[in-house]
Design goal:
six-stranded antiparallel β-sheet; 11 helices; 29% helix; alpha/beta
Length: 407
């Protein structure tokens, strides 16, 4: 008998410990299963340093960009995030904590985030799923939870997570791990998966990222691939990226967006008409609108493109339906996006070098031919009257006409 008491105590302890252990497991599980769709209900809008400034980033630049986002009207148009891309980090300290470049960011990231927040904006940073960033700075592999806690302490609202120096890593596992780390940090952080579409993230990233790159990097020209300086292939022209979006529309929606890469509007490699087409197409794709030009020195026509509220409203439509190509005949294309109110946003795209007439039938848009509908030209902010069955317009070379069709 005297030997049974320890047994009973052991049994009682085990029974007591099991629910406690399960509760702990449940807490861990809930921290990793928080749906990413609670963030980015519409495609994120903001600015990223890479396309214009590459590694030439500093706290002075970021403060000036935040100021310019307000004074230029970008903030009022819906842009929120100010994101520092690669090259802000230089090392890890003895405790493994990521260290910003003290010469370029002498006040530290917390102070810089506070400044951005004081402007009514949100703050973003860049890191890497691999051991090193694409520019050879420390990556986050093996430090995911530590880095996520640090980002939360600094006040980071957006993380772009790249795919250099990843060796044999599995993309899905790597990004799901960082998503779990961000969830566990206690701060809501939009997660931008920058894996270049290599493992078809649209098939698996819905609950890991809020947006995922569908292609390689964009470059500032209309069409055509360009090799990188090291000989690797390839940066893609705007239309090359557009073509790769065909068939992906069903994977996007509130909280999870296909990302055809950042905007090049205003960086000098395309004409104003080409930039207007670029912006229009990204809007009809329900793509993230992440500007990449120098906001401190925008030409009026570039500001007009980036802040055009009727075109932005197409991108930000709360239904979150990505547009799709509904007709193609050589260089002439029609793209259509279903809006929350049942209307359609429509782009007539002329990829060619000569002015052409382009038409769209109501059947292309999913409407019956007999329907009468109001048409509005968005870039001209002009109502074009009632039309029945079809609408057509003359479209200049390398240009678009963008309208809404509303029965």
């Amino acid at each position: 008998m005297k030997n049974r008491a320890p047994v009973r105590l052991a049994i009682i302890f085990i029974l007591w410990a099991i629910p406690s252990s399960l509760t702990a497991l449940d807490r861990v599980q809930s921290s990793t299963d928080t749906p990413a769709s609670t963030l980015a209900g519409t495609p994120p809008m903001g600015w990223n340093s890479w396309n214009k400034f590459a590694c030439n980033v500093s706290e002075e630049l970021i403060r000036q960009i935040a100021d310019a986002m307000v004074t230029s009207g970008m903030k009022d148009a819906g842009y929120q995030y100010v994101v520092i891309d690669d090259c802000w980090q230089v090392a890890r300290d003895g405790g493994g904590n990521i260290v910003p470049d003290a010469q370029r960011f002498p006040s530290g990231m917390k102070a810089l985030a506070d400044y951005v927040h004081s402007k009514g904006l949100k703050f973003g940073l860049y890191s890497e799923a691999g051991t090193e960033t694409c520019q050879g700075r420390p990556g986050s592999r093996g430090y995911e939870f530590q880095d996520a806690r640090q980002y939360a302490a600094w006040g980071v609202d957006y993380l772009k997570f790249d795919w250099c120096s990843t060796s044999t890593q599995d993309a899905r596992s790597s990004y799901e791990l960082m998503r779990a780390a961000l969830n566990a940090s206690g701060r809501p952080i939009v997660f931008s998966i920058c894996e270049w579409g290599k493992s078809q993230p649209w098939l698996w990233a819905r609950d890991a990222g809020n947006l995922w790159r569908t292609t390689g990097d964009i470059t500032d020209h209309w069409e055509g691939k360009k090799k990188w300086p090291n000989g690797d292939c390839c940066a893609l022209g705007m239309l090359d990226i557009l073509d790769l979006q065909v068939g992906l529309d069903s994977y996007a929606g509130p909280g999870h967006w296909n990302d055809p890469d950042m905007l090049e509007v205003g960086n000098g490699g395309m004409t104003t008409e080409e930039y207007r087409a670029h912006f229009s197409l990204w809007a009809i794709l329900a793509a993230p609108l992440i500007a990449g030009n120098d906001l401190r020195d925008m030409k009026p026509e570039i500001r007009e493109i980036l802040t055009h509220k009727e075109v932005i409203a197409v991108d930000q439509d709360p239904a979150g339906i990505e547009g799709r190509r509904v007709r193609k005949a050589g260089d002439l294309e029609v793209w259509s996006k279903t809006m929350q109110d049942g209307s359609r946003a429509v782009i007539l795209l002329n990829r060619g070098m000569a002015e052409r007439e382009i038409g769209v039938s109501w059947e292309d848009l999913g409407y019956p031919a007999h329907l009468s509908a109001k048409v509005r030209d968005l870039w001209q902010a002009k109502d074009l009257g009632e039309h029945k069955g079809i609408f057509s317009a003359t479209v200049g070379p390398h240009s678009v006409v963008m309208v809404t069709v509303r029965p």
